[in-house]
Structure formats: C-alpha cells, structure tokens
Amino acid sequence: MPRFESTDHLREYRRQLVAKRDPNQTQVMVCAGPGCLPMGSEEVAAAFREEFEKNGLGAKVLLKECGCHGLCAGAVRVLIRPQEITYQHVTPEDVPEIVEKTLKEGQVVDRLVYEDLHSHEKAVHKGEIPFFKGQMPIVLRKLDVIDPTSMDDYLAMGGYRGLRQALLEMKPDEIIDAVDKSGLRGRGGGGFPTGRKWRICQDELEEPKFIICNADEGDPGAFMDRAVMEGDPHAVLEGMIIGAFAIGASKGYIYVRHEYPLAVRRLQLAIDQAREAGFLGKNILRSGFNFDIQISRGAGAFVCGEETALIHSMEGNIGEPSPRPPYPAQAGLFGKPTVINNVETWANVPEIINMGADWYAGIGTENSKGTKVFSLVGAVNQTGLVEVPMGTTLRQIVYDLGGGIRQDREFKAVQTGGPSGGCIPAQFLDLPVDYDSLQSVGSIMGSGGMIVMDTTSCMVDVARYFINFLYEESCGKCTPCREGLKNLLFILDEIIHGRGTEEQLALMEELCDTMAAASICGLGKSAVNPIRSTIKYFREEYLAHIRDKKCHALVCRPLLKYTIDPETCTGCLACVRECPVGAISGKKKLPQELDQELCVKCGLCYEACQFDAVHIE
Questions:
Q1: How much of the chain is in helix, strand and coil states, percent to nearest 5?
Q2: Beta strands in 368-480 (DSSP E)
Q3: What pLDDT score does 408 carry?
Q4: Which pTM value belongs to this model?
C-alpha cells in the first residue's frame, strides 16, 4: 500500500485499481457477518478454496469473505457476482455442487435459492427477494461487496474520496454546514442533530479536542454497529477523520465493547492500513492536518453506552454518568471538548460529503432525515439487518421485509430502542418509523434494535425481562434509577407470581414518573418505557395476572396449571418418567392423576405427552 502524498496520487491509484478489475469476473461472496459466522461461514469459505484448487478455478474466480449480507435467517449466505445469484443455508457439503453447476456450467442449484414462505415462489437473484426490495442501503451498501480486510476494495468503491474533498476542497465550517443541512441526527439513541453538536465543540476554545466513536453496542438483539465495524471498518475511520478536521480535533478513539473481538481486529487492521496510506498521522494528504485514532476497549457495561459514563471508563474510572451540562462537546474526555457519535453516524458522514447535503436531506421525513439501520429479530420469519428510509412504516418492515410472523401467528407488539424502548401494539403498525413518531407512542428510536413479538409473548413477562436487564446493568449512582428499578422489579415479580395488587400497579406508574424526572442520565430516564408502554397498551394482561391469577399467553410459570385429561390419557407413563418431583401417579394403561400441591410447573409432562392429554390452563 503506497503512502498517498497528494490528491493526484490518490486519484491515479484509484484509477489503476478500477482499471485492473474485470467487472465480469465471477466473485463468490461468502457472508462472514454476525449471523453467518456462528453457522459455519469460515468452513464454507474453506470448502470453496479447496474446490477452486481441485478444479483449477483459483485464477478465474475471486473468493471473498465479506460483511453481513443482511438476511441472517438464511445463514450461511453466498452471493455470486456479477450474476447476483444468492444462495442460503449453504454448508461445506453444498460447495462442490455450487462449483460444478453454477461456476462451471452456469446453472442454478435450485434447492439453495430463496423460497417465499407463503407463495412458495423462488427467487434466484438478490434483487428479487422481498427482504431487499424495500431497503435503501447507504451505511450497509458495501458490506456484501468488499473484503473488509482490503483497503484496495474500499478505495475502488470510492473510499476516502469524501475525506479528500473535505480536507482539500472544503473549510471546517463548510463541512459542519453540510452535515447540519443534511439533517443527520445521532444514530446512537438520543437523536441529537450531529451538525449542531459539532458546531458546539468547534466553538470551544479549549485544546486539545477529541473525537470518539461510541461502539459500545449493548442492547439485547442488536448487532448493527458490529456488522458495520466488521464489514466496512474504513467507512467509520473516514467519517471520524472528516469530523476531526471539522472541529479541529487531533486525537480520536473508538470505544469497543469486549464482546466484539473480530470488530477490534478489523478496526485495528484498518487503522494500520490508513496510517500506512497517509490517511492518519501527520500532514494527511499534505493538508497540514494531523490526526490519529486508537482503540479503547470497554468491559461490556451497558451503562457505558451513555456518553459521560463512556468517558469515565476511558479515563480509567468507574463507568457511571455525570449530570449535564456541561456536555461532552464542551468538556468531555480529560475535561476537553469532545464529540461522541456512534458507528452508524460516523459511517454516514463520508456519503454526505460525497453525495451532498441536499441528497441526504431528500431522504426520510421532515425531522428525521436519511436512512436507519435496524436489527430485525424476534417472531418474524426473516430476521436480519435492514436499512430503510426514515418514515418507512412498521408494517412494511415487519411484513414486507420481515416476511410476517412465524407460523402465521398474530402480531402482538414490536419493541424499538433496546431495553429502554417501548412496546408498540398492533394498532400502530402503520406508524412511520422516525424519531418523533416513535416518541409519540411511548417508544424511542434508540440505536436500532427492533424486537417483534407475537401472541405467545406475555407483555408482563417482557416488561420484567427488560427491567431485570436494566436493574442488573444500572451503575447505581443515582437513587431514582437504583431504587426505582429495584422496586419495579420486585412488583413485577409479585404480579408474575400471582401476588400482585392493583395498588402496586398504580405504584409502578408513580415510580416511573419519579425515575423519568429525577434520574441523572438518559438511561435512567428512559428505563421506564417498557413499563409505561405495556401498562398503557396491555393493561388487561396486568389485570389478568392480578385479578384472575392467569397468564393468557401461558408464559408466567407460577400462574400455570397443568392437568391430565382422563379421556385422552393412555396410561403410557411417559409423563410419570419425566416428572422430577413425583407429582404424577397411576397405573399403566389407565389415566394418570396429577397432584397440584406437588407440581412445580416445569412443563416436562406436557413436552413428554404424545397424545395431547396434558393441558395447560
């Protein structure tokens, strides 16, 4: 990799890169994203290498282990370019057939292509799959195209063009103006206007100034930032360098949680490559601008996603929030002005500089511009990463992209915004997904987690799950959050065990008001959203638990009652053998009896019965 000393040098190198590449060359893109790696994508890639060597295809076909393809429900995914043939659920055993039929004979392996669950229509090419049709990839557009370890791949797709333009053709004020005009808001949860934050920091006189990428993605079920760091790390670096030039920062940090070792490796490689190429370090592209980046690793504390807690952690202190103001843009890392944005925000910046603020502002809604990346998980048929324009409705995401609810069950709710988000019921399926609309129904955008639930979910149990998560992750610094979560969790446990009262339901609402008003940080203030939203939209479920001692979703074990139907029971004794406490008795080939006093409601008898004789009430 050469060191680029001028714009002309970079432009010529990019021209040569593109000229050397044959657009018609066959490329096999094996997904190595968060969904495919655990399913054996490395083994699939190794099988392709072995088959290429056997068949003498090494010089003709290019193999790449790339980033996330998006449709994680089809892991392991393989995309063959330029034909755009996409295969799913690929195993090493499938590889010889793909090589023989597709790469050598030009035929499609029909059993590996996408098949619609409802119409059973098959789609051979990526663009024909409904999951991809409603998307508008900006942040994710390169993930299934480039090798994330290859800087040449990034440069060939226009990488660092935005940096060149920012450093050599724009003034810092013009960059901030462009980001501000684009309408880009922080994608980490708060949604604060990015350009405004940069301007506040730029106006501060204190030196030095710092740039931080918040990659502490801690929401259950969320993997958006991880996918970008692992699949397109240079986009994050480029955005940070542009931001640093705009505000006058000399040092940048990427704060990555400990659970993302591959992201750390990919980012460190990208940093080393960028430094060698002259995009980091002294006198970048002979512009006189000096800036460098290093990685700071977090221990995985959820609270360190809050920017002041993140700063304390980086300084070697306990990761706990501080009251604001002053804001980090005024006094942040080591007391100096600091801009903190998350991975997705930084990855948007190069495209805004490349394409222009007006282009970006033309996407989305009036107050929520651009696109948003979501990790779509839960009860949908097609889980994965999606990137859609702001204003896309929940129905479009869940049904058009997600393929609807598994086993044709009924949609019940979707939670957006991670543990601190709200649960949105079916009546709002046509709600446009943007910052203001989500807040209007008691939820938040958050970093982009989207968990879909069907009628088998108990909303009291869902609320308890998230409150328990937040209770365990609370830093405990402020009384409203520390004691509020403890008491909310206690009351929810009482309700789930059939000991709750309507007075306690009212007390929970009062506790939520106190926490939202008095907690130090945004995490404590928004921790009440799971309670507020579920009580507001699913109050009847709480009342059923309290008044009737019933969980109609059959989730809350203490409220369940197992019975054996004497008309159906064959006396096979399968339930007797599985019962751990000896609560079931009776003679062979005669109906069995279940002692309710002894039953621990483990459900093993229900699972063991092959004659549907065990019922749950």
A1: 45, 15, 40
A2: 371-378, 384-389, 411-416, 423-425, 449-454
A3: 92
A4: 0.94
Domain, as residue range, for 441: 371-454
User: Cβ(498)–Cβ(463) under 8 Å?
Assistant: no
Per-residue pLDDT reduced to its tens digit, 134-162: 899 999 999 999 999 999 999 999 999 99
The pLDDT, as a whole number, for residue 299 is 87
Residues 225 and 264 in one domain: yes
The parts of the chain modelled with pLDDT lower than 70 are none
Residue % of the chain over a pLDDT of 90 = 90
What is the C-alpha to C-alpha distance for residues 406 and 30, in angstroms, rounded to an integer? 27
- CA-nearest of 557, 545, 221, 228 to 414 is 221
Is position 236 within any domain?
yes
Q: How far apart are CA 483 and CA 475, in angstroms?
A: 11
User: What is the model's pLDDT at position 341?
Assistant: 97
CB burial of 476-500 (b: ≥16 within 10 Å; e: otherwise) equals ebbebbbebbebbbebbeebbeeeb
Q: Is residue 6 part of a domain?
A: no
User: Is residue 516 included in any domain, yes or no?
Assistant: yes
How much is the pLDDT for 418? 86
Q: What is the pLDDT of residue 119?
A: 87
Look at residues 461, 424, 444, 440 and name the one whose alpha carbon lies nearest to residue 527: 444
Residues 60 and 244: their CA atoms lie apart, in Å, by: 42
Indicate whether 489 belongs to any domain: yes
Question: Do residue 247 and residue 337 come from a single domain?
Answer: yes
Residues 6+ apart with CB under 8 A from 334: 210, 315
Confidence at residue 617, expressed as pLDDT on a 0 to 100 scale: 87
For the record, the structure tokens of 190 come out as 């708060």
Which residue in this structure is represented by tokens 């995009």?
Answer: 279
Q: For the chain, first and last CA: distance in Å?
A: 67
User: Distance (Å, rounded) from C-alpha 370 to C-alpha 389?
Assistant: 6
Residue 102 is encoded by which pair of tokens? 């597709």
CATH of residue 510: 1.20.1440.230
Query: How far apart, in whole angstroms, are the C-alpha atoms of residue 16 and residue 450?
Result: 42
Looking at the fold, whether 334 and 301 belong to one and the same domain comes out as yes
* Positions of E strands within 263-383: 292-298, 338-342, 371-378
* Residues with Cβ within 8 Å of residue 446, at least 6 apart in sequence: 189, 219, 416, 417, 418, 420, 421
Return d(Cα 570, Cα 547) in angstroms, integer.
36
Backbone angles phi, psi at 233, to 5 degrees: -65, -30
Rounded-to-integer distance, Cα 480 and Cα 485, Å: 8
